[in-house]
Amino acid sequence: MIIIGILLSIAGLGFFCWALFTLAVYALPFFAAVSVGMFVYDSGAGPVGIIAAGALTGILTLIAGQVIFAAVRSPLIRMLIAVLFAAPAAFAGYHATHGIATLTMPPGIWQMIFAVTGSIAVGATAWTRMAMLTPAPSERGNAGRQVQP
Length: 149
Known about the structure:
The chain is an all-alpha fold. It contains six helices and no strands. Helix 3 (47-71) crosses helix 4 (75-104) and helix 4 (75-104) runs antiparallel to helix 5.
């Protein structure tokens, strides 16, 4: 019975790590959606309005980030947009990794080391996923063109 518990714990931890890395790029749109949802809630709107405003804000934030990241050629602006998306993901990665470390080891410096390592890994994953969400340069401007020899 103990072996089954250990195996299920490893599988659950693996699932949560997979979900954290997969959803890392959506941390900024989620944060924007929750912030707008809370603002709309405080203004007295109903549940349907809150959900609609939050969902619309999250979708628009993600689309705007992807479109701007794909359209802008300046490496500095692209880097700033990628950092804008990677910073909330790194923050979430820090807290998720720290929570897992708190459950598995006594308090101390090693919890912080694991949390910072997790933060860097999740932030880097969000950074690379943001870059992967945009089409390649050859697909953007040269679609349908053939090179003449």
